[in-house]
Amino acid sequence: xxxxxxxxxxxxxxxxxxxxxxxxxxxxxxxxxxxxxxxxxxxxxxxxxxxxxxxxxxxxxxxxxxxxxxxxxxxxxxxxxxxxxxxxxxxxxxxxxxxxxxxxxxxxxxxxxxxxxxxxxxxxxxxxxxxxxxxxxxxxxxxxxxxxxxxxxxxxxxxxxxxxxxxxxxxxxxxxxxxxxxxxxxxxxxxxxxxxxxxxxxxxxxxxxxxxxxxxxxxxxxxxxxxxxxxxxxxxxxxxxxxxxxxxxxxxxxxxxxxxxxxxxxxxxxxxxxxxxxxxxxxxxxxxxxxxxxxxxxxxxxxxxxxxxxxxxxxxxxxxxxxxxxxxxxxxxxxxxxxxxxxxxxxxxxxxxxxxxxxxxxxxxxxxxxxxxxxxxx
Length: 378
Fold this sequence. Notes:
By secondary structure, this protein is an all-alpha fold. Helix content is 71%, strand content 0%.
């Protein structure tokens, strides 16, 4: 995932699911096993919302202009969701997330990916730092998720290991800047801000990095220009995005209940393009919630909003326990959602796999850690 795609991992997960041996039947026992957790109501409702969303996606596909595209998209999404949510459940229930070096591997992979991106950026004359398997903006999303999970993991370690956060950020931040992903910048800053709210040392560290960033930006005119463009509604890039949002609203107004169908957005966009706009064949709405409403309709948006809201609430409750990794889950989720207000990089199945794994880790960690006192308020 750190290199930009979880599709290869999906293949291995699929093979593993087929090869998985079913447990032999055992005599019923009234004693709860260590891995049997009470499911809080908020998780049950979130899972029901997810199934309802899949049902709406299927129904939307049947009435779409391109039903074959809708059905394939729905099937692909359901398969990826099943594989990664089940994998997250197994990691949490068996305590494998820390017993096995998954997060260490993620940290090493993100470092290697960052080094490769910097090498390609400086020696192959890319105007923006790319990842191996995804776009510049998609790489911004991955840096948010990798950064938050690895920082959270390091915060759980002994004091001397926590200092590794400094060189790790010193590598990730220049790569993030070089991607020139403005949404990625905002989401990453939001992610670090969340950590800072729980840890005073992280606040000091973030302020130092912001100061360094402010001092070096004048020496990189393209990046300086892109930052200034972010605050100008009259800039061409921002006008284009506004045109896309307006076109998406027209799409929602014409197909309010079931939308245009999963994956069908780019095939019908031209019909709704605003007069004067030069954009044609746009692939997504550059806003996650507008995109969901456009493709699945308002019937699909409702369960999606509940799923996102419930996940954010559960991750916040976990973060309040002061666990560094739990804070990382919350920071990663919110950071990505903030980025998704101006992009939809998680909509492709490659990065969607990483995001679904993140959701699964939050759901099943909350299920494992929830106490009766918390459950009565859930």
